[in-house]
Design brief:
This protein is 39% helix and 12% strand. The chain has three helices and two strands.
Length: 85
């Protein structure tokens, strides 16, 4: 167990042994949460890139989602077979 001191400005330094154990390095974003029993929980925050889609990209997605006539017929045949039991 490690003991840390809360600074005057509310800052806490995480001990190096804890950082090493969790493979965390400086300048990393963390999520801070609390529990009902008063514990403070820190978790690494995941940062994912954001892609904005224009109308052409959305149209491409929709086109990829469409069933080909052959695949639609195969799906219908499989559903009919399941209904027959």
């Amino acid at each position: 167990m490690n003991v840390v001191k809360l600074g005057k400005k509310g800052q806490v330094s995480i001990p190096k042994a804890v950082l090493d154990a969790l493979h965390l390095e400086g300048e990393r974003w963390l999520i801070v949460d609390t529990t009902d029993d008063g514990a403070i929980v820190l978790r690494p925050a995941g940062v994912a890139p954001i892609e904005l889609y224009d109308d052409a990209r959305i149209a491409a997605f929709l086109e990829e989602d469409e069933l080909t006539p052959d695949l639609a017929a195969r799906v219908e045949a499989a559903l009919a077979a399941l209904r027959r039991g």
